[in-house]
Amino acid sequence: KKAEQQAGGAGESELQKLEKAVLSARKRLDTATAKLQEAQAGGSDLVDALQTGVDKTRTKLEAAEQALADFRAADATATADAAPAGDAAKAAIEKAMAARAAEAALSPAEKARGDLEKLRARLEKSQARLEESRAAGEEDKIIEALESTVTRLRDKVAEAETALRAGEEA
To answer: How many Cα atoms sit within 13 Å of 154 on the Cβ side?
Structure first.
């Protein structure tokens, strides 16, 4: 075990633990906040207790986020000389987290437009792959699967377009 920790294997699991702690705290805060809002709307006697719970959960979330930030800062300085493969993985994780944060900041209409564009791109790729398969004379089961995928994606694109139009009209 000590050899694993010294080799840096434990560092990744520590990062995962910290990220899980942050996600878990966020979920608990969301749940507690929702219960507090329900209690406030219903005029419940539990509002004060729930508010205390929300405050404590928010504090725990902030502590977990700070621990994660501290770990990343320490890990960044400790692994500055790490192998390029580790840097690539770390960069991919940071890119994914940045994309998730950017997506969370989007309005519902912007998110719907982005999702629609992604669906259209998938549909185009699937249609191209279907045409290639037909031209290459691939097995019927492959062509049938691709046809099914194209049909499903067309339906999803149509649904997304309808939902987007309905959202813009509202």
So the answer is: 7
> 10 Å Cβ neighbour count for 45?
8
Tokens at residue 95, please? 């890119």
Cα separation of 88 and 76, whole Å? 13
* CA dihedral angle for residue 88, residue 102, residue 124, residue 148, rounded to 10 degrees: 90
Burial of 39 (0-12, 13-18, 19+ CB in 10 A): middle
**Phi, psi of 129, deg, nearest 5:** -65, -40
- If you average pLDDT over every residue of the chain, what do you get? 82
DSSP codes of every residue in 106-140: S-HHHHHHHHHHHHHHHHHHHHHHHHHHHHHT--H
Tens of pLDDT, residues 20-67: 888 888 899 899 888 888 888 888 888 888 888 888 888 888 888 888
